């Protein structure tokens, strides 16, 4: 085989590969293919899951209740409610349905409202590990839903649709006996975009929630496309930057944006961001960008020179002085804690103004993309930051059977120690949302 023949074959292979790449990227501009790429909801792992039997996937016998939640636009969502360990262990028998004990559990212990990432279902192994860890080690209830178009849920996924699903889940908890101050909103990967949108919506309507936890988040789908690499090595769309306006076309065609950076200024509750350095799917720089966005309103502004060529010495001195002042202010506000063999935690305290909420960023050495929440070190931080380790205040309802729980709920969820954001809003001001979420028994 001559050298010319080899070069011809190599050139042909590169051309074919390039054509396939351009075609695949071009399909992202088509809404149908874009939706399936963003959500991957057709990948329903584990295949043929039996959601009525959560025990098959590692959860304790009758600790989980499988049911449906109705949304405002009449979609039906598959959901699991997992009892907190302390509630589960006090049941008279583990051979009966957990359904009668849900109201008592909601009135007694805080609840994590969990929004998973793209692909798979609520029965996926990595997610089961999160439910187990949260319900046992943090001793909280967990409500996990499958968005529309996922698992056995009806409909097709969209950004606004997923936000409606999240709101329906929140309202189901409220209508079932939970207080807003006891609901900790938690999202992973794609679920962080959903969580941020829900928290911003609740903040705008002055409805309470305990806080927000964003695990392995992205700042926006647009920014994620710029940084995403297959298996952490092969950049997905970076080659498009070499073609004039090619990447601009892709961003213009995006219909699923999940712009968490835009939601930052609206979120009023306590926030915790967690990311692993060895995340191959979403770089931890996205979490750094989100943390800095929360911090930015507390720092002095910097006026960039409009024209570097004509900038005077005085203008440059003023510019560098602003940068120094911003750096000094950041060092005064942000507390950095280095934890041996675990990672680094940066945090700044909240204040009286809504934009001065307490925000924590935990950058861990390990956890990859899917297992951030099962790191016990992070669970400890979450437990302390959101008051989940605080024992419930003594009350007559704490030891009462579920049927008699009544309105004498404990006040532990609304304590200032939990750091929840809780405006005073009369129930009558909750609008039409109070009845949109309900159980639909099969």
Automatic annotation (TrEMBL):
<feature type="region of interest" description="Disordered">
    <location>
        <begin position="393"/>
        <end position="442"/>
    </location>
</feature>
<dbReference type="GO" id="GO:0052651">
    <property type="term" value="P:monoacylglycerol catabolic process"/>
</dbReference>
<feature type="transmembrane region" description="Helical">
    <location>
        <begin position="12"/>
        <end position="33"/>
    </location>
</feature>
<dbReference type="GO" id="GO:0006660">
    <property type="term" value="P:phosphatidylserine catabolic process"/>
</dbReference>
<protein>
    <submittedName>
        <fullName>Alpha/beta-hydrolase</fullName>
    </submittedName>
</protein>
<feature type="compositionally biased region" description="Low complexity">
    <location>
        <begin position="395"/>
        <end position="420"/>
    </location>
</feature>
<dbReference type="Pfam" id="PF12697">
    <property type="entry name" value="Abhydrolase_6"/>
</dbReference>
<keyword id="KW-0472">Membrane</keyword>
<keyword id="KW-1133">Transmembrane helix</keyword>
<dbReference type="GO" id="GO:0047372">
    <property type="term" value="F:monoacylglycerol lipase activity"/>
</dbReference>
<dbReference type="InterPro" id="IPR029058">
    <property type="entry name" value="AB_hydrolase_fold"/>
</dbReference>
<dbReference type="GO" id="GO:0005789">
    <property type="term" value="C:endoplasmic reticulum membrane"/>
</dbReference>
<keyword id="KW-0812">Transmembrane</keyword>
<feature type="domain" description="AB hydrolase-1">
    <location>
        <begin position="112"/>
        <end position="326"/>
    </location>
</feature>
<dbReference type="GO" id="GO:0004622">
    <property type="term" value="F:phosphatidylcholine lysophospholipase activity"/>
</dbReference>
<dbReference type="InterPro" id="IPR000073">
    <property type="entry name" value="AB_hydrolase_1"/>
</dbReference>
């Amino acid at each position: 085989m001559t050298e010319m023949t080899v070069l011809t074959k190599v050139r042909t292979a590169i051309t074919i590969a390039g054509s396939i790449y351009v075609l695949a990227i071009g399909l992202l501009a088509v809404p149908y293919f874009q939706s399936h790429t963003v959500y991957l909801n057709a990948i329903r792992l584990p295949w043929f899951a039996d959601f009525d039997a959560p025990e098959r996937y590692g959860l304790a016998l009758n600790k989980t209740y499988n049911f449906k939640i109705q949304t405002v636009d009449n979609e039906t969502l598959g959901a699991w409610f997992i009892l907190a360990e302390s509630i589960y262990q006090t049941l008279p028998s583990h051979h009966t349905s957990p359904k009668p004990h849900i109201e008592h559990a909601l009135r007694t212990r805080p609840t994590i409202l969990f929004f998973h990432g793209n692909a798979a279902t609520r029965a996926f192994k990595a997610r089961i590990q999160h439910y187990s860890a949260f319900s046992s080690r943090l001793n909280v209830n967990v409500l996990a839903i499958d968005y529309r178009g996922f698992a056995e849920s009806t409909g097709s996924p969209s950004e606004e649709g997923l936000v409606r699903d999240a709101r329906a889940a929140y309202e189901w908890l409220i209508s079932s006996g939970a207080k807003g101050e006891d609901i900790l909103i938690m999202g992973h990967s794609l679920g962080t975009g959903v969580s941020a949108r829900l928290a911003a919506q609740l903040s705008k309507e002055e409805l309470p929630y305990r806080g927000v936890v964003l695990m392995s988040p992205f700042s926006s789908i647009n920014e994620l496309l710029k940084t995403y690499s297959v298996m952490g090595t092969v950049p997905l769309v970076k080659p498009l930057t070499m073609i004039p306006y090619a990447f601009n076309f892709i961003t213009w065609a995006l219909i699923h944006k999940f712009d968490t950076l835009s939601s930052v200024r609206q979120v009023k509750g306590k926030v915790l961001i967690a990311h692993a350095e060895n995340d191959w799917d979403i770089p931890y720089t996205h979490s750094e960008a989100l943390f800095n966005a929360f911090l930015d309103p507390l720092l002095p502004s910097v006026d960039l020179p409009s024209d570097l060529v004509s900038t005077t010495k005085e203008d440059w001195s003023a510019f560098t002085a602003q940068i120094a002042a911003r750096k000094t202010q950041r060092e005064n506000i942000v507390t950095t804690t280095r934890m041996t063999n675990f990672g680094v935690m940066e945090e700044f305290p909240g204040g009286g103004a809504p934009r001065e909420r307490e925000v924590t960023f935990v950058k861990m050495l390990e956890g990859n993309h899917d297992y951030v929440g099962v790191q016990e070190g992070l669970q400890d931080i979450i437990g302390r930051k959101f008051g989940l380790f605080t024992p419930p205040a003594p009350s007559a309802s704490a030891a009462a059977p579920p049927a008699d729980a009544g309105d004498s709920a404990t006040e532990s969820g609304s304590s200032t120690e939990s750091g929840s954001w809780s405006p005073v809003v009369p129930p009558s001001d909750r609008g039409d949302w109070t009845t949109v979420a309900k159980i639909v028994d099969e």
